[in-house]
Amino acid sequence: MTEHTVKSFEEELNTLSAECARMGGLTESQVADAITAVVKRNQELAGAVVGRDDRLDIAERDIERRAIKLIALRQPLADDLRRTVAAMKIANNLERCGDLAKNIAKRTLVIIESDPMTPLTRSIDRMGKLVVQRLTAVLDAYARSDLERALAVWSQDEDVDEHYNSLFRELLTYMMGDPRTITACAHLLFVAKNLERIGDHATNIAEIIHYQITGDEMIAPRPKTDAFTA
Prior knowledge:
By secondary structure, this protein is an all-alpha fold. The protein has one domain (about 5-230): Phosphate transport system protein phou homolog 2, domain 2 (Methane Monooxygenase Hydroxylase, Chain G, domain 1), CATH 1.20.58. It is built from 7 helices and no strands. Helix 4 packs antiparallel against helix 5 (about 145-155). The radius of gyration is 19 Å and the shape is elongated.
């Protein structure tokens, strides 16, 4: 390759990574706003989260097109190929996080029709903040190519699971104690499950970063707590 070609190729790779990071920022906002909407019982914000979901779909398709074009025309090898494929895989995980945030927002529109259940809302808030922290940390690891930070996110996968399992038991207790809460609690259970799945996508991204940087797959099993999250 000529120096000009190499420089152009590096610019394309940097643009691809930058677009993936930008999509990550949009995803963080969607997830954070979905959590705020359910905790604050904010119908307007929940509707906005649902309406903004298309932006992530468009961003994922754009990153996929860029990556495929880059592979077809540049035929990257080794580190460059892993970097290209990683961007495409991370974008896919981010799009799924966006879908889950939209699902949370849709559930919120139903939940706010029921009487508030403050203790459960606080539990959702705590779990939501933990999930957002993990998503922020792993996206920061991607932007900085920071393997140690990515591994820290991966090793804490069970923290979200523990919150989910605790909330699962709390929701069952409410439903058994007062059948009138069953509908709202069922929707909150789905909200909690969606948050747990967003945490799993953060762990997926950590594994993708590990492969991008090292060229090796993660071989150790993910830390898990119990069968509730299976």
